[in-house]
Amino acid sequence: MSELVTGEAVALELRPAKLPSRGLAVLLDLAAAVAAYVGVTLVLVAATASLDRAAQTAVTIATFVLVLVGGPVLVETLSHGRSLGKMACGLRVVRDDGGPIRFRHALVRGLLGVIEILMTFGVVACIASLVSARGRRLGDVFAGTLVVRERVPAGQGGYVPPPPPWLAGRFAELDLSAVPDGLWLAVRQYLTRIRQLDPQVGWSMAERLAADVAGRTGAPVPPGLPPAMYLAAMLHERQTREAQRTFGGGAVAPVSAAGAGAPVPSFPAGPVVAAAPVVPVVPPVVPPEGAASSGGPARADRPSTGFVPPA
Predict the structure, then answer these.
(1) How far apart are the C-alpha atoms of 34 and 16, rounded to whole Å?
(2) Angle, helices 123-131/19-47, rounded to nearest 10 degrees
């Protein structure tokens, strides 16, 4: 298990990839890149047959750089660190803080990969990975990245506590597109580590994260609501939307209070927290037998429909 710690003192459950899986992923990526390079070269040879020797050499060098260097950089940037070989081996390239990589990270890794993988046949990369405690090659060290395993055994991931039932669906109308993936990752890592943090430290972290989320969504934390519950409700809303986009509408049921055996969320209490209002649920009143046919007026202190207006 990696010992990565973010700036908010949240430990990340990242499993660094070992050398055998990384080597297999590199071989698959190289096979795909070489196949693409050969195909592009054959096309260019036929297209540049009428050019002189110098022009053909320049085209060959440009093709090598674009296909064997630019291609992997573009794929890792667009897929957020998952090339073809890494997808096949269940690996991903992430930043040191666990966030998704960007173009500059993929570019540094690709340029140094030419030296330590292509020019030295992977010898430098293997030595650097064996020496590094987290299996990083030189490209990872200079780019500030890490190759981690995405496929972990079931039940090994952190448990994210669900929001209280009366908060489910409260933020359904918000626009969450302005919240970056890195902030969602920080929220999830905080919620999975909420029981392991000091109460005061966890409360201050929750306040900062809630302020960041509220600033990007325009929905402030309701008065009296602990920021951890606010973050749990926001994360649950995002996960619900992602599941609905993936599996279709209505695939995810909202959190309900009637779920038998559902874990009860536990959030740390802050210095002074006012109890959030809970809407009471009153069952419908069923009149006794014969009351409906008596025709008598309904009592003023007993609702006839069981409807209770929201608080």
Answers:
(1) 27
(2) 150
For 191, which DSSP code? H
Buried b (16+ CB within 10 A) or exposed e, 71-109: bbbebbbebebbbbbbeebebbbbbbbbbbbeeebbbbb
Structural tokens at position 210: 């809630």
Strand bridging mode 145-149 / 91-95: antiparallel
User: By the 8 A CB rule, do 83 and 72 touch?
Assistant: yes
Read off the tokens for 56: 């053909």
Is the pTM higher than 0.90? The answer reads: no
Mean pLDDT lowest among 53-57, 83-87, 138-142, 289-293: 289-293
Distance CA 109, CA 176 (A): 32
pLDDT (tens digit per residue) in 126-168: 998 898 888 899 999 999 998 988 765 544 445 677 777 777 7
Largest distance between two CA atoms of the chain: 107
The 8 Å CB, 24+ separation contacts for 118-124 are 118/68, 122/23, 122/26
